[in-house]
From TrEMBL:
Transmembrane segments: none
Family: Belongs to the short-chain dehydrogenases/reductases (SDR) family.
GO molecular function annotation: oxidoreductase activity
Protein name as it appears in the record: SDR family oxidoreductase
InterPro entries: NAD(P)-bd_dom_sf (IPR036291), SDR_fam (IPR002347)
Keywords for the protein's UniProt record, in alphabetical order: Oxidoreductase
This protein's record includes keyword Iron-sulfur: no
Source organism per UniProt: Arthrobacter crusticola
One Pfam family here: adh_short_C2
Length: 235
């Protein structure tokens, strides 16, 4: 069990997170998957840990489960997040608190625990899922609160990549465009697709392939991979 590579994935019960679980399992990794309401798993090499990842005790339990069950943590994908699209003046205190708690707290606590384990073994990989709106704002999608919080995940990538490079730990990010997930009703797909130069929304597989590329690109760290249908290139 010590030689089996292990990925920890947050926000893993549906959408991109569930796709990432499948992608890493197909790559041969054991997976520890977390979300607030994730169901138990019958797959020996897939362990689920339910709980709010912004809670430091939950974050500690997720990493402890990976180490106790599989002996290590090789990859952490910080996928958990919330996206609230509103005009800036309409955000409530609750919106603000929830976005900071999940998008930043949900990254901070578990990343500290995971990276400590990676440093002990001299290797590891952290991937943050952000949004291309951080770099390419769009008046059709008012998203200042997402930019404030997911922007934090983006800005920390280079800092951590440099801090941990000599210790064998890589840190990267994937910046998706608007992805077809249960969050977006089908009647919105055409309108959202038109916001991308390629003329369509992204798929969960598009994001998964991007993350798995970075997983296998051993010489890549501090990188932002845009999986956004050309949004980052221009309009």
């Amino acid at each position: 069990m010590e030689t089996r590579k292990v990925a920890v994935i947050t926000g893993a019960s549906q959408g991109i997170g569930a796709g990432l679980v499948d992608g890493y399992r197909k790559l041969g990794y054991a997976v520890v998957a977390n979300s607030r309401s994730i169901a138990p798993s019958e797959d020996f090499d897939l362990v689920t840990v339910a709980g709010d990842i912004s809670d430091p005790e939950v974050a500690e339990r997720v990493i402890a489960t990976a180490v106790e069950r599989f002996g290590r943590v090789d990859t952490l994908v910080n996928n958990a997040g919330i996206f609230i699209a509103k005009p800036f003046a309409d955000y409530t205190q609750e919106d603000y608190d929830n976005a900071l708690r999940v998008n930043l707290g949900g990254f901070f606590h578990i990343s500290q625990k995971a990276m400590a384990n990676m440093v002990e073994r001299g290797s590891g990989h952290v991937v943050n899922i952000t949004t291309t709106l951080v770099e390419n704002a769009n008046s059709n999608v008012p998203s200042a609160l997402a930019s404030l919080t997911k922007g934090g995940l983006a800005s920390v990538v280079k800092s951590l990549a440099i801090e941990y490079a000599a210790r064998g730990v890589r840190v990267n990010a994937v910046s998706p465009g608007i992805i077809k997930t249960p969050l977006h009703a089908e009647e919105t797909h055409d309108a959202y697709g038109a916001l991308h130069p390629v003329g369509r929304m992204g798929t969960i597989d598009d994001v998964v392939h991007g993350v798995l590329y970075l997983e296998q690109a051993r010489f890549v760290t501090g990188e932002f991979l845009h999986v956004d249908g050309g949004q980052s290139a221009g309009n």
